[in-house]
Structure of SDR family oxidoreductase:
Amino acid sequence: MRVLVTGATGYVGGRLVPRLLERGHSVRVLVRDPARLEGRPWAGRVEVHRGSMEDPEALKRALEGVGTAYYLVHAMLSEKDFQKAEERQAESFARAAREAGLGHVVYLGGLLPKGARPSSHLTSRARVGEILRAHLPTTEFRAGPIVGSGSASFEMVRYLTERLPVMVAPRWVLNLVSPIAVRDVLAYLLLALEKGPLDVVEVGAEPLTFRAMMETYARLRGLRRVILPVPVLAPRLAALWVGLVTPIPNRLAVPLVEGILHPLVADTARARALFPEVNPIPYEKAVALALERLALGKVETRWSGALFGPGYLLEDREGMIREVRTLRVEAPPESVFRVLTSLGGDKGWLVWGWAWQLRGLMDRLLGGPGLRRGRRHPTELLPGEAVDFWRVEALEPARLLRLRAEMRLPGEAWLEWCLHPEDEGCRLIQTAYFAPRGLSGFLYWWLLYPFHRRIFSDLVGAVRREVLRTGSNNVPFEGSKKRVCESSS
């Protein structure tokens, strides 16, 4: 069967594609940036179509000759008003799929609370399912928290439990939820190809409380943890706390927390009848398998894998904190790279000049180089040379510039820019890395985070303005279109 997978760079889609190929299916993927597939072992075995869910022509081409399509996309992290965006995307896809005569769409949505108002995220997921079912033969799986190495739900439980010996938690951590292992989600998705349209099917393992989920993780890791439920704790405050302690950004933490304000228990009667071959594994086993994959370094996909749009990502993973900012620039990579390689020295850093000067003075007082080293040449850089309190660690013309910090720090830091050709312009990806050393490093990062966030956000925007101001956006493309870094994934 020829199958279309949307969301192939996401957490579930990235795992589904190789399993479809293993079963002999012809797989086509629709992605916004085909370069994001480079390095994946299955990339050369799929038919790649470039486009978005709101591009009718791209959808028409991608759906041609397809028997079944998987709808595995959402706009929660790429759009501020994600509900309207998800509705537009679903309607656009449904129109194109109906015109193409699509026989079956398989959609992965979320469980809804029984007898209570669902969160905005779950409401949006349900609305997408309604649109697809109204226009197309549909199988809509509704699942609770997906548990697997790299999943958002697993990472949230993992970091909260690892970092907080004592947790004061809202009383709704005592609500029952039906988690499900990612391997069982994949099993249902694969079997849906053979079953045909089934309407709504709720899936999940045996329910347990969110508190029990954390306690189970602690037991498997040999940790002693105390969780104290309290009557009052605002959901948004709890979500902000999750965003602070874990790698999950607030834009994702808020809907995750709001989603468990009420019990989320799956009615699995239809799933058992329709898919007797799937016996969902218990939560404890799912966590044990996820920990095993982490220990072996064999994490297939991660919740942040699909983040490659304009915007911001803060991530804390395996001891490395990353701040990623992406921005489209209406100029070729060569023009942008020329601006990047002229930063520092007498020209300065385009924005917040006094803050850079103050940081340099503080570094000199602590015995570091400060800004006194300047730079050798006003526009040229060579690998290994100094730029103020940075050193050029990697340089690939029109593609990559990475600076390593040599200032006094309780850890190690880097500032990196990657450039990817995109239509008539390019995508600029700026990443600040920090590997904290001990508790002092962790406190240093969070104390200065409000300042870093503003300064680095302004910096990436200033680079774009400088490119356009200097009028160098008419420089022709000369560099290869090879993708050389994965900062955004």
